[in-house]
C-alpha cells in the first residue's frame, strides 16, 4: 500500500478541511486514482449532519501516486483538527525565530509507517524573507480502514426534492443565521419556492421572525422522475424543512470554500446542499451536505 503526492492546491485543500472540521473530530478520507472523497457521517455529531465530498485529484495534486490491493483505493480515518493544522502550516508556515516570514514553495505528502502507526507525512519546503531555505515536517496519525468498514459507509437515501434554489453568498447567510440564534432554540425553518424566493424563519413563545431573499435562480437539476411536476403546482408555494440551528451554522462554515451553492429541499425530510469548488461547469469538486429535519411538522 503506497500513497504520495505533491499538493499544488494547498489553500483549497486547507479550506475544504476547514469547512468540514467543525462537524466531528474524525473524518474519512478515501483516495482513489482520479478522485478524493472526504466523508463525515452523522453518527458522531449533534443533529446528524453529514458531508459526502468529491474532489478531483487534478484540482489539488500533481505527481500523484497510489497503489493498493483494493482497486488502488486507500481509505483513512483521520483527525480533522490535526489535518487542518498540517495544511495551515503548508499554506502559511510560521515565522522564523528572527521574525522574518517564510513562504512555502513545495508541499509533499506521503503515507508512512511510524512504529505501529500509519502517518501522513507532510514535508513543506520554502524560503524565508532573508532567502534562507526552511523545511517543516508535520505528521498526522491515521487509521487505515478495512474494506468491510468502507463498505458500511452509505450516502443517505432521500426523496426527490420539492424545490432547488441557488443560494446567496454563504457568508451573508451565516451573518443572518448568527443573528437568529437567540430565537432559534427550536430550530430554523429553511424554505424556498419556484419563483426564486428563500426564507429563514424562527419561532418561539414570544416572537416569530422571517428573513427572506428574492430574485434568486431555480436551477434545473437532473431528476429520477419522468417529468418536471413543478409546472403543475403553484410556483409561489413554499417548501420547507425545520433544521437544527447548530447544523445550519456548521454547514455555513463552508462559506470559506463556496463559490456556488445549490440547496435542494425535500419537504419535512431534509435539505441537501451542493457546495461547488470553483465554477459549476468546471468545478474541481463538490461538498454535499445532508441536514435532516429536526422533526416532522408542517412548514
How would you characterize this protein structure?
With about 300 residues, the protein is α+β, with helices and mostly antiparallel strands. The chain is about 15% helix and about 40% strand. The protein is built from 5 helices and 17 strands. It has helices at about 10-20, 80-90, 145-150, 170-180, 245-250; strands at about 1-5, 25-30, 35-40, 50-55, 60-65, 75-80, 100-115, 115-130, 135-145, 165, 190, 200-205, 210-215, 240-245, 260-265, 270-275, 285-290. The strands form 2 sheets. A 13-stranded antiparallel beta sheet has the order 5-1-7-8-9-6-2-3-4-17-16-15-10. A hairpin with a 5-residue loop joins β11 (about 190) and β12 (about 200-205). α1 packs antiparallel against α2 and α4 packs antiparallel against α5. The chain is elongated. Mean pLDDT is about 90; it is low at about 95-100.
Amino acid at each position: 500500500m503506497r500513497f504520495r503526492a505533491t499538493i499544488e492546491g494547498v489553500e483549497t485543500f486547507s479550506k475544504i478541511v476547514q469547512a468540514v472540521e467543525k462537524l466531528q473530530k474524525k473524518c474519512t478520507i478515501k483516495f482513489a486514482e482520479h478522485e478524493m472523497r472526504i466523508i463525515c457521517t452523522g453518527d458522531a455529531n449533534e443533529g446528524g449532519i453529514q458531508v459526502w465530498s468529491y474532489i478531483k485529484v487534478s484540482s489539488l495534486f500533481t505527481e500523484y501516486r497510489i497503489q493498493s490491493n483494493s482497486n488502488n483505493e486507500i481509505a483513512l480515518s483521520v483527525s480533522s483538527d490535526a489535518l487542518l493544522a498540517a495544511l495551515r502550516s503548508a499554506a502559511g508556515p510560521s515565522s522564523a525565530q528572527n521574525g522574518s516570514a517564510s513562504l512555502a514553495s513545495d508541499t509533499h505528502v506521503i503515507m508512512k509507517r511510524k512504529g505501529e502507526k500509519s502517518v501522513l507525512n507532510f514535508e513543506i519546503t520554502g524560503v524565508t524573507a532573508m532567502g534562507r531555505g526552511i523545511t517543516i515536517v508535520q505528521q498526522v496519525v491515521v487509521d487505515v480502514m478495512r474494506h468491510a468498514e468502507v463498505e458500511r459507509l452509505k450516502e443517505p437515501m432521500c426523496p426527490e426534492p420539492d424545490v432547488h434554489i441557488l443560494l446567496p453568498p454563504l457568508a451573508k447567510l451565516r451573518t443572518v443565521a448568527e443573528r437568529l440564534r437567540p430565537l432559534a432554540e427550536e430550530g430554523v425553518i429553511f424554505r424556498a419556492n419556484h419563483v426564486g424566493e428563500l426564507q429563514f424563519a424562527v419561532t418561539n413563545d414570544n416572537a416569530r421572525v422571517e428573513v427572506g431573499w428574492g430574485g434568486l435562480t431555480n436551477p434545473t437539476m437532473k431528476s429520477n422522475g419522468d417529468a418536471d411536476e413543478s409546472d403543475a403546482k403553484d410556483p409561489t408555494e413554499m417548501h420547507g424543512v425545520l433544521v437544527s440551528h447548530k447544523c445550519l451554522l456548521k454547514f455555513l462554515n463552508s462559506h470559506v470554500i463556496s463559490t456556488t451553492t445549490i440547496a435542494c429541499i425535500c419537504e419535512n425530510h431534509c435539505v441537501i446542499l451542493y457546495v461547488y469548488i470553483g465554477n459549476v461547469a468546471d468545478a474541481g469538486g463538490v461538498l454535499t451536505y445532508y441536514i435532516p429535519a429536526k422533526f416532522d411538522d408542517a412548514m
